[in-house]
Structures are given as C-alpha cells and as structure tokens.
Amino acid sequence: MNDFKELVQMRRSHRKFTDEPLTSEEVRLIVRAGLMSPTSKNRRSWHFVVVDDKVNLQKLADAKEQYAEFVGGAPLAIVVSANPEEDECWIEDCSIAAVTMQYQAEDLGLGSCWAQMKNYTLTDGTSSEAVIRGILGIPESHRVLCILAFGHKADERKPQNEERLKWENVHIDQY
Hints:
Radius of gyration: 17 Å
Number of helices: 5
Largest sheet: 4 strands, antiparallel
Structural class: alpha+beta
Distance between the termini: 35 Å
C-alpha cells in the first residue's frame, strides 16, 4: 500500500482463502500490530491465541452455528480475549487490537474476516465463548471478543465505494 487512505479503502472482509499458509514473518507482523495497538491507560491486557491447527480451526468455526464457517477454511486464526476484571475497557481495547491486526494483514496483501463471539449462544444453551475457552485452554476469567481469520485471498473484492460513504451520518458541533 502507498498510504493509509488507500489501505482503508482496500480493506474488505474476505471469507475465502487459499490453502497457502502464512509465513512466520507475516504472522509475526500481524501479532506485532496487535501488540502495538493503543489501549486504555496503556494496560495492554488483551490476549491473543494464534491457531493454525486445522482441527482446532474447524472446532473454532463450529463454536458459532452461523457466520463463522470461514474460520475453518482459513490457514490461521487469532482469538482475541481479555479479563474484564483487569480492564473495564476490554471490549474497546480488544476491538482496536483486532482491527489493527486486520489492517496489517491488508497491508501485507492478505485477507481477513472478523467472527464476533461475545454473547453468542449455541442452540443447546452453551456459550460460544465457553466452547472456545475449552478448545484453547483460555482461563474462565477471560471473555472472548472475536476470532479473526487470516489467509491469502481466494476471492476478489472491490475497494470501498467512495460514493456510498454516509456523510449524512457525520455531525459537526451538534447532532
């Protein structure tokens, strides 16, 4: 990417990935971006679990009955969690870290997609977060915000359309 303006316009959700694995350097740069993301009071209380095991990726995809199947087809996922007792801004801090990792992936030419997990429950009453904690050994004290899927893009997405920006939703000085 040449600049941030272009990066923001190009970053789109990709739910289809090739089988090509990410390099260790690509993974390191993505995680590094998350670790550098700003947090409330510089707490940096989020935790990232990097998953590239195909069995676990499929189990993570099944932790939500809809809208997470793409995780199973990704070569890499990162689960973003935090302990709400350590950080009252855990949702905001984890969200900033997650989006920062997605922008880094786009800058590397990789695709990504966010699968929301917080507050989802399976039809049997089990929370998606509990399933994920069980798969990955995440402590009970942690809440899971999302799973980010990463990989080499197997589909084409057009850049964000400048004509569709909702400038009418921007208010100056007053609503």
